[in-house]
Specification:
Blueprint: H1 3-24, H2 28-44, H3 47-70
Helix pairs in contact: 1-2
C-alpha cells in the first residue's frame, strides 16, 4: 500500500475519534466549538484559486528544472 493511502486512513481515523468524542465525551461541546471555528475559517478559503496557483507554481518550477538540466 502507498504512503498516501495510509496517511488518508490515519486522517479518517483521527477525524472519527474527534467526532465521536464531540458526541459522547466529557467536554465535547467545547471541542465542537473549536471544530466549528476551524470549519468556518476553512470555508472562507478560495480553494479553487489556491489549487490553481499551486499547480501553476509546480509547473513553472518543473519547467525551469527540466530546462536547466537538459537545456
Amino acid at each position: 500500500m502507498s504512503y498516501l493511502f495510509f496517511q488518508a486512513l490515519r486522517y479518517l481515523l483521527i477525524t472519527g475519534i474527534v467526532l465521536a468524542y464531540i458526541e459522547a465525551g466529557p467536554g465535547g461541546a467545547a471541542v465542537r466549538e473549536i471544530v466549528d471555528m476551524f470549519k468556518e475559517e476553512l470555508l472562507k478559503v478560495d480553494w479553487l484559486t489556491l489549487f490553481y496557483e499551486f499547480k501553476t507554481t509546480v509547473v513553472e518550477v518543473a519547467t525551469t528544472a527540466i530546462n536547466s538540466w537538459f537545456g
